Amino acid sequence: MILKVGYKSLCFGVLFLCLGCKTTSTSSKVSNNTDDFLVNTIAFYNMENLFDTEDDPNKLDERSPIMEIAEGEREEIYWKKAANMAKVIADIGSDVTGMPPAIIGVCEIENFKVLQDVVNQKPLAPYNFGIIHYDSPDVRSIDVALLYQKNLFRPSYSKAHELILYDQNDRTKRKYTRDQLHVKGKLDGEEMHFIVNHWPSRSGGEKRSRPGRVSAAKLTKKIKDSIQAEDPYAKIMILGDYNDGPYNESIKGVLEAKEHAEDVDLYGIYNPFEKLQKKGIGTIAWRDTWDLFDMILLTKPLIDKKDYNSYRLYKAGVFNPYYLQNPRGRYKGYPFRSYADGGFTGGYSDHFPVYVHLIKKKE
Asked: Quick one: pLDDT band at residue 35, thresholds 50, 70, 90?
């Protein structure tokens, strides 16, 4: 039996063994039949301070790590960082599909230009990536965006939703943070929605900063609910760095994301990453503790296993190959971040990317 994967074909039995061999993923069983299948990867990546080398007088971009590097070295470091980001994106899911993700949400990027520089790198240039990006009012000038292969995904609508927060001690003082990006379009002709997030950080401590992430969750839910009000069967994926784990109030309480697919109702949300977190698998590490802040959440129509005539979730995982892990020292095995102690490490990001594989029968 042959599985059609992007432009390549693989033996389905070999693919199934490959998907089942990693402890960093969860997968669903597909019935053993003779039909061909299509697989596409959807991913999310916190690109850790992907800033350019220019000091914009209208932004606080001088706080970015690259501005701490000697001016004569910045350009070279910038292009190394861009090349590293392109390599990671090109590799996510490629062991299965033979190509980069069809769609990838990203965060911690400064502007449209830095993303252009990434997608024009050699590993990604052949795939003709499009970019959907809006400048957000974030105090550090970091944004979210969606990258997509133009031959696979056709966007028809996009909007940046502003998250309005105020200082807890001074309700007249606004705290500027990232927008949430909603994109609608057709993946291989099938309509889908993507909500890209980068929720407020834990600066000042988890408890003190919690209200910001709860507010962010309420905005995400509002966007999701408005989509479902028009189409209860909408296929929605919520991608992001939530700065919270699957167990926190924002995810469990506000979004009501479920660990088990069978518990998800028509308007509900499934979180396939909760099982991974409970196994001790994470996307970030801090003080010898792993956590899973990066996730892709899905609505009911994407997890309904009645048939595979349209795209359904097949697998969810954390992308953590050895080259993305710190190779030495106290932080060996942690995400190999790109900046530390005022310099460039040669690494990638302080977060591992996450992904899902969507699968459907070939017509």
From this structure: low
